[in-house]
Amino acid sequence: MNQENTQARVALVTGAGRRIGAVIAETLHNNGFSVVIHCHCSQSEAKSLCAEFNKKRPNSARVFSANLTQKKENQKLITEVVDWGGRLDLLVNNASIFMKTPLESLDDVRWEALFSINVQAPFWLSFAARNFLAAQQGSIVNITDIHAETPLKGYAEYCQTKAALTMQTKALALEFAPSVRVNAIAPGAIAWPELTNELTHEQQEKIIEKTLLKRHGDAVFIAQAVLAVAENPFITGQTIRVDGGRLLS
After folding, report:
1. Label partner for 65 (CA 20 to 30 A): which of 16, 96, 104, 165?
2. How is residue 200 annotated by DSSP?
3. Which helix (H) or strand (E) holds 125?
4. Do 82 and 133 form a contact (C-beta atoms < 8 A)?
């Protein structure tokens, strides 16, 4: 156990080596949390981020790597976090797979990968963390998607996983009350997709045009929302959309 951290609130952010997860971790750290940066593939980025945090406040961050498709690794991750930090106050289920699945080329491997990371892993982590969070009257924040409500063409399986995670948020808020709060943040156009999901400039402009605020978001807006629901002791079972009004357009 890291004795120096027993008084600091501890947050675990999954998939926090880069992109939105890294910004969430940074925002929490800037607001006094000791932060566990979970990663699987982005280990070099996670270690660099951790070094930055520890330079600001010694022993205030740690990296743990885990393959969240494996149930035992989820339990092990929570155990490692509590052994290091002495407590757990916030679990942010951010790790996710965003993958195009055209209906003419569906396969079980992609289906299982999407549901394993986007639905099962948050469920297993939440149950493993429940008692530790309850001891601190802590909370869980799931990162969902506005496309849990309005499907995105070409991503039918992904959208189903985020819809399932939205329902998981409500169900566990009911199951874990009153000692653990469970909420979700649903991003809109925040971080443009990468690699095979990359959008053309024209596609990006069409998305911005459909957003009421007529601009692209920023990962810090998601991080601010995570912090807000984590800090508010009277919000549970809710999904907060951070989408610039896109769902209404």
Report:
1. 165
2. P
3. helix 121-135
4. no
Tell me what the pLDDT averaged over the chain comes to: 91
**SS3 category, 108:** helix
**What domain range is 77 assigned to?**
3-248
Cα–Cα distance, 16 to 95 (Å, whole number): 7
| Distances from the Cα of 48 to the Cα of 3, 160, 190, 208, angstroms | 23, 34, 23, 32
Catalytic site positions: 158
In this prediction the pTM is 0.92
**Under 8 Å between Cβ of 87 and 135:** yes
Q: Can you tell me whether residue 27 is helix, strand or coil?
A: helix
**CATH number of the domain residue 93 falls in:** 3.40.50.720
101 or 164, which is more confident: 164
Sign of CA dihedral 234, 237, 243, 248: negative
Pull the structure tokens for residue 93: 């289920």
Beta strands in 14-60 (DSSP E): 34-39
Count of structural domains within the chain: 1
| 96, HSE (Cβ side, Cα atoms, 13 Å) | 23
